[in-house]
Design a protein that fits this description.
GO biological process, one term: DNA replication, synthesis of primer
GO molecular function: single-stranded DNA binding
Radius of gyration: 15 Å
Distance between the termini: 33 Å
Number of helices: 1
Protein name: Replication restart protein PriB
Family: Belongs to the PriB family.
Strand content: over 45%
Keywords: DNA replication, DNA-binding, Primosome
Structural class: mainly beta
Length: 100
Amino acid sequence: MNNHLTLFGTVTRTKRLNSPSGINHTVITVEHKSQRYEADLLRNVYCIIQVILSGPRFNSVTDKLQAGVQVEVEGFLSLQQGRNGQNRLVLHAENVELKT
């Protein structure tokens, strides 16, 4: 089975966290807007997703991840349960490329 997603979008929020084990995490919210053809009709596509960047390999890019910056993110999708008990889909980054 394969679980891989590439998404291009604009950073809208950034938050930094440290796990109890000392791992640095940066959580960004990425907004994507585009148009795609589906069943021969042009469709507006819009989504917002949280992206989690974990570990020291992202240290060089996290300072540049500000609201308004365009990024291309590659990674895998996973279900995450929030403190309120609701599940949400998040993207765990394996590669992040700044586009602006």
